[in-house]
């Protein structure tokens, strides 16, 4: 008997079908049970009182049935709310049902799936916008975030500068020491860039050994100072078999006019100064200002 009751309790706690059957059974028999109690208590057996009692019991049984079913399926309403919130805002709300029946399994399963889906999508977004080797943003990410910063600078009438630079003689490093050493140099460059910039500066790897910085609220003097500091830090690094001074970089700095120029035009202008630095002997910073003949250079 004890085993039988244990089995019933387990079945009741894990089976939604059993719960619905029990609710429907009780709700259906409420009028009969009420009438039996009514007559057994010695109340009038006239048709009208009996009919009124049965109707009241039927209404009570219906309310009991609806309330019980609402309680049984209530976790599904929470699941629907979680799904709608995630679809509309992207916010993940975790739910945890203590129920062991099918509704509880569905609620907990969908909640876990949404959490896993969001984590997977976040990882895919990071992979789509991040350069795996250096940890910096990639060209796609730079185009999106950099354009936003250009627009913000235009609205705020604030200065903004773009720096384009690449590592000098990088191909010869790969050819002489192998691509593993070349990768080490790129990883060192990425780490140095991240440690050298301010929290709101933007850095991306836009080519094999080419990088770009977008420096919000930064005039040409500050941008040139940042670029030259980064140039000296790279030159001071020793990577694997490469001695200090073997890794150098050439920089082009351009302080643009965000009200008239796009990120693309600013990068093109900075790129021209980069090639000026490379043609001038490399390991240098060349700079220019929008709509101005003013330009300059800093050499090692």
Structural commentary:
The protein is of the alpha+beta class. 62% of the residues lie in helices and 13% in strands. It has nine helices and six strands. It has a six-stranded mixed sheet with strand order 2-3-1-4-5-6, sandwiched between helices. A hairpin with a 5-residue loop joins strand 5 and strand 6. Helix 2 runs antiparallel to helix 3. The termini are far apart. The mean pLDDT is 86.
Helix tally equals 9
Helix content: 55-70%
Overall, the morphology is elongated
Report how far apart the termini are.
92 Å
The proportion of strand residues reads: 5-15%
Unreliable runs, pLDDT <50, ≥5 residues?
Answer: none
* Gyration radius, in Å: 36 Å
Q: Would you tell me the structural class of the helices and strands?
A: alpha+beta
- Main pleated-sheet profile: 6 strands, mixed
Order of helices and strands: HHHHHEHHEEHEHEE
Mean pLDDT across all residues, rounded? 86
Task: Give the total of beta strands.
Answer: 6
Strand order in space, largest sheet: 2-3-1-4-5-6
What's this model, at a glance?
By secondary structure, the chain is α+β, with helices and mostly antiparallel strands. The protein contains nine helices and six strands. A six-stranded mixed beta sheet has the order 2-3-1-4-5-6, sandwiched between helices.
Keywords:
300 residues, alpha+beta, 6-stranded mixed beta sheet, 9 helices
How are the elements arranged and paired?
Elements (H helix, E strand, L loop, with lengths): L1 H13 L1 H25 L6 H43 L12 H28 L9 H18 L3 E8 L2 H8 L1 H18 L5 E4 L4 E7 L3 H16 L13 E8 L6 H17 L4 E6 L5 E5 L1
Parallel strand pairs: 4-5
Antiparallel strand pairs: 1-3, 1-4, 2-3, 5-6
Helix pairs in contact: 2-3, 3-4, 6-7, 7-8
């Amino acid at each position: 008997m004890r085993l039988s009751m244990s089995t019933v309790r387990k079945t009741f706690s894990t089976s939604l079908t059993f719960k619905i059957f029990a609710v429907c059974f009780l709700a259906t028999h409420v009028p009969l049970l009420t009438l039996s109690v009514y007559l057994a208590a010695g109340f009038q057996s006239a048709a009208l009182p009996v009919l009124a009692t049965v109707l009241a019991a039927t209404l009570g049984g219906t309310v009991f049935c609806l309330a019980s079913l609402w309680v049984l399926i209530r976790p599904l309403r929470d699941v629907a709310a979680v799904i709608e919130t995630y679809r509309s805002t992207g916010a993940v709300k975790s739910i945890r049902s203590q129920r062991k029946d099918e509704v509880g399994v569905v609620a907990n399963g969908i909640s876990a799936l949404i959490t896993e889906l969001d984590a997977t999508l976040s990882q895919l977004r990071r992979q789509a916008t991040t350069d795996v080797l250096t940890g910096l943003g990639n060209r796609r990410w730079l185009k999106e975030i950099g354009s936003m910063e250009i627009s913000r600078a235009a609205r705020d009438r604030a200065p903004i500068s773009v720096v384009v630079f690449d590592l000098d003689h990088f191909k010869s490093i790969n050819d002489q020491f192998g691509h593993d050493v070349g990768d080490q140099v790129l990883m060192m460059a990425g780490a140095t860039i991240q440690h050298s910039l301010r929290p709101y500066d933007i850095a991306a790897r836009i080519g094999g050994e080419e990088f770009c910085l977008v420096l919000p609220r930064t005039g040409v003097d500050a941008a040139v100072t940042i670029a030259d500091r980064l140039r000296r830090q790279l030159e001071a690094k020793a990577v694997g078999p490469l001695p200090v001074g073997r890794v150098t970089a050439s920089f082009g700095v351009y302080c643009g006019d965000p009200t008239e120029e796009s990120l693309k035009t600013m990068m093109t202008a900075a790129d021209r100064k980069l090639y000026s630095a490379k043609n001038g002997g490399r390991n240098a910073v060349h700079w220019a200002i929008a709509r101005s003949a003013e330009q300059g250079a800093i050499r090692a």
